[in-house]
Amino acid sequence: MLAKLTQQLKEMLQSIKYIQQDDLAYLSREMAGLAGRLDRITQLNANLYIDLVKQTAAKYADPRCIAAAPGQVYSQNNEDGIISEIFRRIGTESRTFIEIAAGDGIENTTRLLLETGWRGLWVEAGPAEADCIRNLMRQPMDDGRLVFVNDRVTPDNVEAMVEESGFVTPDYVSVDIDYNTAHVWRRLMRFRPRLFCIEFNGHYPPSLDFEVPYDQDKAWTGTTRFGASLKALERIGAEHGYCLVGCDIFGVNAFFVRQDLCREDLFIGPYTAEQHYEPPRYSAVAMRGHARHLPFADA
Prior knowledge:
Blueprint: H1 2-56, H2 79-90, E1 96-100, H3 111-115, E2 119-123, H4 127-136, H5 138-142, E3 146-149, H6 158-165, E4 172-175, H7 181-188, E5 195-199, H8 230-239, E6 242-247, E7 253-258, H9 273-276
Parallel strand pairs: 1-2, 1-4, 2-3, 4-5
Antiparallel strand pairs: 5-7, 6-7
């Protein structure tokens, strides 16, 4: 009798286990579906919000404004469109680039340049990102169009990285290392590119000159304290002969054109933070449209 009851209890517990597993699987499927629908709604709202911003602010109607330039293939925001539009105005020479913090190679500001005939240097410290780049970009690395350095960049080593790569006359340079961005940017000025794309800290008011002190051991911790304000970048750029010509509409990156290439018939003046500041619209930063395609050879 006891053996029979024990067996029945085991069968009941087993049934409960299966029911729980089925319920968990069902809930997981439902949650995944809801998350997908929420993501689509979030992206739709972000797109509508940005469209509304462009319609209500007069500066976006000025043809010299770069903030809302259309185009996003591999960039996180609309940097692809902004970069293309700026070079349409100022022209190119070497058609080479440098990207400091290139990510995984799937999403950055220079992959589109690489796929359209440019050559250049990527620097990225993350091991997982480096593995992705080596797999994804094997072809352009093998034929010399792309040099990749897997190392943490500092003001002390960045110039040597560029010199060793051979790309010492770049047309375009991007720096986005979160915490110490401006400190590394200063060391890249001597290469005199036509265009810089520099991450700025939009939390600080446009008239406030703020920059975190350099600390090689510091990294962004998710707070509002990182990098440099737009005013600080304006000052640094001006000290080295670069004009702030605008920011992306999401308030993430600032664009600096070399002074000899900058004219008010091409870009809106004055070239100040107060003129070109964009507030941080981070909630609108999302992959819009189709997913990035991975294989370089399929481009």
